[in-house]
Amino acid sequence: MTRNAGTQPPMPEQGAMGSTRRHQLTCAVCGRVFASARPQALYCSSGCKQAVLLQRRHEAGWRNRHRRCPRCGSVFVARRSDGVFCSGACRQAVHRKRTTHMKAQA
Ligand SMILES: [Zn+2]
Ligand SMILES: [Zn+2]
């Protein structure tokens, strides 16, 4: 009766090839489950993305200001970008030592 029995092409799945396919993802910031067209999306909203960018920038700046005092070896956060010593006492101590050392050697 039917000549083309068994040779029917598979039916294209409705929506599978469409662009409206969404992925269930969890926001890396607030932990909310959200749907996104991009499987690699990390954040539910631009607000969460902005929060991460700000935090990252803040951490980078904080790390850059994290220094180890060359005199006492303690780690401190430099208040100024050119701060080298943990305190004025250490800075003066090194300065004094350097000058007295030079005088003693000379
Ligand atoms: Zn979020
Ligand atoms: Zn120090």
Write a structural description.
35% of the residues lie in helices and 13% in strands. By secondary structure, the chain is of the alpha+beta class. It folds into 2 domains: 21-64, no CATH class; 66-106, no CATH class. The strands form 2 sheets. It has a two-stranded antiparallel ribbon with strand order 1-2. A two-stranded antiparallel sheet has the order 3-4. A hairpin with a 6-residue loop joins strand 1 and strand 2 (33-36).
**SS class:** alpha+beta
Whole-number average pLDDT?
A: 82
Radius of gyration based on Cα positions: 31 Å
Q: Going across the major beta sheet, what is the strand order?
A: 1-2
Brief digest:
With 106 residues, this protein is an alpha+beta fold. The protein has two helices and four strands; from the N terminus they run E-E-H-E-E-H. It has helices at 46-64, 88-105, and strands at 23-26, 33-36, 66-68, 75-77.
Topology overview:
Elements: E1 23-26, E2 33-36, H1 46-64, E3 66-68, E4 75-77, H2 88-105
Antiparallel strand pairs: 1-2, 3-4
Bound molecules: zinc ion (2 copies).
One zinc ion binds next to loops.
Please describe the structure with a list of short key phrases separated by commas or semicolons:
two-stranded antiparallel sheet, alpha+beta, 2 domains, 4 strands, binds zinc ion, rod-shaped, 106 residues, 35% helix, 2 helices
